[in-house]
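Run log, item B.
One chain of 409 residues. Sequence copied directly from the ordering sheet:
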Amino acid sequence: MSAHTSISDAPVQAHSNDAVAKYNAVVLAAAMALGGSSPAIVVSLGGLVGQALSPDKELATLPVSLLNLGLALGTIPAAVLMRKAGRRIGYMVGAGIGLAGGCLAAFGIASFSFVLFCLGTLIIGSYGSFNQSYRFAATDAASEAFKPRAISWVMTGGLIAGVVGPQTVIWTRDFIQAAPFAGAFLGQAALAFLSMIAVSFLRPAPVSVAASKASGRPLIEIVRQPRFIVAAVTGLVSYSLMTFMMTAAPLAMIGCGHSVGAAALGIQWHILAMFGPSFFTGRLIARFGKGAVTAAGLALIAVSAVIGLSGISIAHFWLTLILLGLGWNFGFIGATALVTDCYRPEERAKVQAANDFLIFGSVAVASFSSGKLLNAGGWDSVNWLVFPPVAIALVLLAWQQRTKAAAPA
């Protein structure tokens, strides 16, 4: 009937092997638990190291912003590499990049070079562009029914990463006495190496001969689809607003008189809230639908901003960060599931890369602007700016759902 039916009923889906999909989802969850700890380490320490090394204190959050810029810049090269060499080789190369970035960041700290440290976090960010595509890789061999759960399985690895990252900071930050925090980045490099071992066990997804030879529709035709626009916008808003608020929150807490330890704990609770719901998000999508779960995530992000505007106690900050994490989980996993409806098997690499480039390019802009806006307008201004993007995304989702309901069967 419609293009949607032709995509979801593509021949390769008839041969989908959920046994392979389940195995790969477990492998990718393990890799996410290791590699996904890298952003937590950079976010926890990037601003502190930046304050110590930067000649201009306004540049203190630059290392964290460069992490997100590296993530955006790496999405398309990562997709091209995996399309040519396969997921397993691509992910092993990505882990090698993460190892190199961690070593360079540690060397930058040890040599008191802000430039080298920033270059290291930029490279770590490009490693993240490989990690972020784990959620799509989990769906390569999955049936339509299992896709949301496969994404959720992988994202549960992020829950473990939310513990591994901060604990790595705690246990390794003083490993090199003459260079505080350098040990934590060596720890990040070691985790990237372990991730390389994990992804070496990945199995190739079965792909039909027709799909492997076809190139699919032009990318411009795919991204102009209303359903792709809605999926990309909801993912972009969910991730960008989460980064926007998360980057500003630790500095805002310290500026309001709270301790560095309280800020770090707030980030840890935030990360746990980001990935904890992944155990059941896929089931929620199966029961209530992709659009409804995505909308719930966006609404939670808006509620987090309301809490942020209502007070500056530790409880207010922590609750804001927890709701922000929950909203990101529902919004981002739901949007990812929406994207999988937009392409045929032979088109997945370029569409996934385009989607992630748009999302993480926006995330980089959000991260760069967050610190400046906080300095200029304070924590309240950060929270007020959450509402317009959420409103736009919810209107688009509602329009899509109404259009789908009105479509003939």
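Observations after the first pass:
- Residues 37 and 165 are 4 Å apart (CA to CA).
- The chain has two domains: 12-206, 210-409.
Flagged for discussion on Thursday.
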